[in-house]
Amino acid sequence: MIRIRRRIGLLAVLVAACSPRPETPPGDAPIDSAAVHRPDPVAVMPAQLNALPARPGATVARIVVRRDTTSFSVGRAVVTLSTGDSVVVADSAVRAWKLGGSLVAVSGLDGAGGYENEGQSLTVIDVADGFRRRVVADYFAIVRVELLDAAGHRGLLVHMRDGGRGSLHVTVVDPKRGQVFRARNALGRLIDGGIAVAGYGDTDEPVEFGDKRTPLRIDTIPAAALDTLGLLVIPRAP
């Protein structure tokens, strides 16, 4: 009798294990379930790139992106020096900016993901000493880069555009390190000795260059403070 009961009990356990289980709605799923699990975010940190051959005293006359005619999306960034010599500073560039003297900046497609993976990166290159550093990797396309050069301190004012809503966003960059300030739905401008960023909050109307609305706040970043601000960590979008 005892053996029969044990067999019946074991059979009941097997039947229960093989029976279909009711599906838990995603909203009610426990926090550690597969329904809500996401991989840990990966930080996209600034990266020091291989240096170019140094050209002491070199100055940039112009920079252009010679696009691949099969796609027209990216191409080689070619610098023309004041001497007439040409230098390829990036093999895969979206846009390029002449910042003054020997300094240029180049955007690329290796950003931090974002809407339809539109995020771009920004690399700063000094053709005189060969310095190259990726200083931005964000979720948006980079549309404008300006150089602040004040009292021996340098910074970059970078405008980005959201391909989903079309709004502008701002990041401020220490060119020797990386992003140190960031504001969504914002406009920036160079001022005497620093950078001013006007923020418009979570507005439904996209922010555009020349926006006439009154900002909700204005942040001022002095040039002398750029190398004292903490470095921002931008997680890569899954």
Number of helices: 1
The CATH class designation is Mainly Beta
Q: How many beta-strand elements?
A: 17
Runs with pLDDT <50, length 5+?
1-44
Order of helices and strands: HEEEEEEEEEEEEEEEEE
Structural class: mainly beta
Instruction: Report, as a whole number of angstroms, the end-to-end distance.
Output: 59 Å
As a whole number of angstroms, the C-alpha radius of gyration is 26 Å
Give a verbal description of the structure.
By secondary structure, this protein is mostly beta strands. It has one domain: Lipocalin (Beta Barrel), CATH 2.40.128. It is 7% helix and 43% strand. The protein is built from 1 helix and 17 strands. The strands form 5 sheets. It has a 5-stranded antiparallel sheet with strand order 2-9-8-7-6, with no helix packed on it. A 4-stranded antiparallel sheet has the order 10-11-12-13, with no helix packed on it. A 3-stranded antiparallel sheet has the order 3-4-5, with no helix packed on it. The radius of gyration is 26 Å and the shape is globular. The N and C termini lie far apart (59 Å).
